[in-house]
Amino acid sequence: MIEKSAVHAASVLRTAFLQAQISSSAGLLQSVDARVKVLLLIVVVIVVSVKRALLPEAMIAVFLLGLAALSRIPLISHYGRILLLTFLFGFLLALPAACNIVTPGEIILPLWRIGENVTIGPVAVPAVIGVTAEGLRRIAMLSMRVLNSLSVTLLVLATTPFMEFIRALRFLRVPDVFLLTITLAFKYLLIFTTTVFDMHLAKLSRMIRPERPADSRAWTSGRIAFLFRKSQLRCDDIVRAMRARGMTSAMKLRPLPPLAGRDAAAAAGIAAASLLFLWM
Known about the structure:
Elements: H1 2-23, H2 34-50, H3 54-70, H4 75-94, E1 107-113, E2 118-120, E3 123-125, E4 128-132, H5 133-158, H6 162-171, H7 176-206, H8 213-244, H9 261-279
Antiparallel strand pairs: 1-4, 2-3
Helix pairs in contact: 1-7, 2-5, 2-9, 3-5, 4-5
């Protein structure tokens, strides 16, 4: 248990390090202003939500895959997370919609024959229960929307340094309280994960032989209580330090530079691609 916890904490730190490394590497989207990438995120999410056909959704997926490849993002690990989340929150959640009880239509795969129509409260159960073509199209549509929304979100986050992303949101008039909350939560998450990793590493370095499961559970529960108390104390210290420095809810960020020619060209390309997808 202790070894697994240390591995999980190390994986979180590794993901944060790789994100910082990818966002500062040489790639297509890395060279584009953060405001343009936030524009890409907003536009793609809107187009994905508006379209009701599978072909435009598939073309958007290919478009985002091309951007990820040109941005030199590790495609296997990047799309591995995307496909897993799509399967969990897109396919599995919508799977009941394939049944004719939820989505009436042409049955292409009969599952169960009960002989006659039955009404159970407000639900009408047909004589033949099966998978319909309309239900499969609905599942495919929802899965593609989830896939594209996750793809563009993780793509923008992977190619944009965190503070540049915050500054771009500030440019879009996102409230400072919201930005301050995101910034503090992100930084504290890294501090918290580092603390967890250090505790487990110190525990492993003092172990001569594997502990019994009961001892591991007792140690883990004690560390959870310790981290809870430490988190409360750290939050109080942060609030007092912020007040002592005269900090308010207004964030002071370095002003953004004017858009360069490549940024304007990227914005024009996003607009053209969006119009093309809307036309399809």
